Amino acid sequence: MDLFELSHYAWNPYGLAPAVVGVLVALLGLLVLLREQWSPVSMAFFGMTAEWAVWLVGSAGMLFSGEPMVALKWARIENAGVVFLPSMVYLFTLAVTGRLRPHRAWVLAALTASCVFAFWVAFTDLFITRVIRFWWGYYAQYGPLSIPFLFFFSLLMVVSLSCFWREYRRVGPGTHKRRIGMFLLAFTIAYAGAADFAATFGVPLYPFGYVPALLYLAIVAHGVWRYRLLDITPAFAAAQILKTVSDALLVFDREGVVRVANQAACDLFERSERQLVGQPIWRVDSAFFPKERMDAFVRTQVIHSYEAVRCTQQGKRMVLDVAVSGIRDDLDDPAAVVCVARDVSERRLAEEELRRVHEALKRTHEELKSAQMQVIQAAKMESVGRLAAGIAHEVKNPLAVILQGLDYLNGHLESRDRNVSVVLQDGREAVHRADRVLRGLLDFSALKSLEMMRENLNDVIERALMLVKYPRDQAHVRLECKLDPQLPLLAMDRQKMEQVFVNLFMNAVHAMPQGGVLTVRTLTRLRRERIAGAERIDPELGQVGQMRRFVAAQVEDTGSGIPEQHLPRIFDPFFTTKPAGKGTGLGLTVTKNLVELHDGTIEIRNQPSGGVQVTLLFPEGGKGSDGGKS
Amino acid sequence: MAENPRSRSRKKVLLVDDEPSFTRMLRMNLEATGAYEVKEENNSARAMATALAFKPDVVLLDLIMPEVDGGTIASQIRSSREIGGAQIIFLTAVVGQREANGSLATLCAIPCISKPVATPELIACIEKGASE
Lengths: 630, 132
Hints:
Order of helices and strands of chain B: EHEHEHEHEH
CATH class of chain B: Alpha Beta
Number of helices of chain B: 5
CATH topology of chain B: Rossmann fold
Helix content of chain A: 40-55%
CATH superfamily of chain B: Response regulator
Largest sheet of chain B: 5 strands, parallel
Number of helices of chain A: 20
CATH architecture of the largest domain in chain A: Up-down Bundle
Number of domains of chain B: 1
Number of domains of chain A: 4
Shape of chain B: globular
CATH architecture of chain B: 3-Layer(aba) Sandwich
Oligomer: heterodimer
CATH topology of the largest domain in chain A: Rhopdopsin 7-helix transmembrane proteins
Structural class of chain B: alpha/beta
Structural class of chain A: alpha+beta
Largest sheet of chain A: 5 strands, antiparallel
CATH class of the largest domain in chain A: Mainly Alpha
Radius of gyration of chain A: 55 Å
Number of strands of chain A: 14
Number of strands of chain B: 5
Strand content of chain A: 15-25%
Strand order of the largest sheet of chain A: 4-3-7-6-5
Radius of gyration of chain B: 13 Å
Helix content of chain B: 40-55%
């Protein structure tokens, strides 16, 4: 092997530069290959730089040769690299512009042609005929078979550069454009190295091809480091996104057949991608996608969202938040739907929990509010009570004097004027009216003592009805009495209870000045008794408490009802809708107090059919069960 | 002991109230009937002395008065040997009629009338007490 004998070589300063550049080019190819992690583009780049290195190193070997035979061998090595350069550049051009796939056949043809040229270079004397010595050293001389190669070289040079140019024009501003621009510049410069061919035809032009190669090297090394070889295109990103998103992502065509499914979708439906893709979605899970809405989804490009429930093979129930939108093809026809499903079961549970807590909080708030109202009401009552006692003492004494005075005058005034007795009577009436107001106030402030006896509520009601018989008849109010004969006895202060019913009956009669029907009903009711605060302690158990029997009494009229805006105030002291002088405004206040002193409740509402319904509820075995304490 | 009221033609009625206009008016009304001999006392502190001197068959007592209240005077009368049998009626402004008929009456066994009261009502009450 005379290639490896040092005696065949001689020092030639012109050989150094191509040798160094050749090694650098090879190193660049290797670095890019490593940096781009053996991506197809980087492999094409490496192939190209390898051929380039073979050319430059071969050229250096030829220049260092001391004998023509050795120089010829190096010339063959050099040109074996040169003939592959156009194909490798073409291959790389297509790879970096993303057009390799449609032009595979051309690349193959180019590589085959290069192989044929390489064969001619290596094994015939018709491509490289000999070497001659120029002033810079030995250099190969081309024969007739080099002509097709030069044609081939020029053709691919033009194709490659125009390919870069078209790509540069096509793409929008950004990294890819800058990268393509860089390659366009680098290759344009590199092709200046084609001037080396001049020497192969005997022209004594120094082969400076390594200089543009060095420039090329500098530009590409800078560019690749800065812009890298691979572009992050939306398509490239989409594939990566599909793989990494945690939401299940599916694409169906218009027939509902799954075309794309990511890993999360496979996990959701517990199938492999192969089992999923190609199946109609309703066969995979009939509840997941509403077949009848397919048309609506596919036609519009807005995002529809709905909730689906999926039961896994383990029987776990999942709530899915599904977002669907249509995709259109290049002709803008509806083509498919994209479906993104997210498991929101835990969020839903949390929301329900939150709602439950909120409800409990709201109830508590309502109770607190009602308790506060009761406190305010009680304070109001107490102040009214104290006021009442004071007023009573100060006003009733003068009233007593006036009444006695009127009585005296009545007996001693002998006047023919009839008006005198009318005036006296009016005065007496006025005193009695003032007295009634004060008595109401006093009843109200002196409600503390009750005389409890076990009584039948029906008896009390009947007696009260007797007391109001006269005003009731006057107003032509018909009575309907539905008293339950099986009513249990209740502990009560009979007089006070009578007062309660007289008040209610009188209110009812007053509400029907044109006549009507007064309905009185008694019955027993079974109700769950609420324990204060139980709901707050454990809302899960629902209402806590035991069933308790209540005696209920209902009083209904067929009057015009109470205006809704008055309903919250009807129990307020001094609140009245009767004309001035007709009512004290204390009737219902006293009534409510009396009912509550018996542990009872009073509820007043308008009936849907018109008129007012008053319901009293007394617990059986209430206040009186422990012996009638007051 | 007090004399039997039925043996007398006119009943002696003592009015104890700190309101002179009221006692005056009431006295005139009662006297107008001709059935009563009436004495007024507007100073509650002197009420007992007046009662002992007057020896009434009926005492109409206000409950709330300065110095001595009606309740105290009532118990003094009840415990007196001379006039302990006199009929006592409270006449007060601080109670409603319903209550006057209720707890107070049963507690002290003393009838209680709420002011203002019409003369016929009062007379009915006096006569009712006398007949029992």
